[in-house]
Design brief:
single chain; 58% helix; 5 helices; 187 residues; 4-stranded antiparallel β-sheet; elongated; alpha+beta; 4 strands; Tetrahydropterin Synthase, Chain A
């Protein structure tokens, strides 16, 4: 009888032991799944909640409206033509060129930002197609100058005339009225 009791105790322990290891495995797997969900879910929720406002703003912008806003900025002030003096012409459209940084002949460099004012109120589409050759032509024009060529107001005025001539020549028609320097540094 003692042997039967020992066998029953051993079989009971054998069934209890696998149950304990099964619960441990289940607990470890469940804990790992929760940690994994937190690690992945927290950043996803952060981006969804924090970035959601920006994405909805970007998605609700109508491309036609965006273009109209840009045109309005370029044509600002045109509705006030009634207030112009008799001898005053309305402003044309402006195009801001990217900054030019060019080595000068004889040493030094020129850093220049300029805006071109067009005669028409809209920038011609042809200008955009010729923008790279125009920019190349202007870089060549600037790099052929020396520090002395850019030292006085009179010489800067001559440079403006040369810029207008170069752009109009590339456009094969007179489209630029004036050029404005918004930054001019010679070193």
């Amino acid at each position: 009888m003692a042997e039967k009791e020992k066998k029953e105790d051993e079989s009971a322990e054998a069934t209890v032991a696998p149950a304990k290891t099964g619960k441990k495995k289940l607990f470890i797997i469940g804990g790992a799944a929760i940690v994994l969900l937190l690690c992945i879910g927290a950043p996803v929720m952060y981006f969804v909640l924090a970035g959601g406002e920006e994405e909805t703003d970007a998605q609700t912008v109508d491309p036609k409206t965006a273009v109209e806003k840009e045109v309005v900025l370029m044509m600002e002030g045109f509705e006030e033509e009634d207030e112009l003096e008799d001898d005053e012409a309305p402003l044309g459209a402006f195009y801001p060129f990217e900054t030019f940084v060019v080595n000068l002949t004889g040493g030094g460099y020129l850093r220049l930002q300029l805006h071109a004012e067009f005669i028409p109120r809209d920038i011609p589409k042809k200008f955009y197609t010729k923008l790279i050759p125009i920019r190349d032509r202007l870089i060549t024009l600037f790099s052929n100058k020396t520090r002395d060529d850019l030292s006085t107001e009179e010489l800067k005025g001559k440079l403006k005339v040369e810029i207008i001539g170069a752009i109009n020549e590339m456009m094969r028609k007179e489209t630029i009225r004036r050029v404005y320097f918004t930054q001019f540094i010679v070193q």
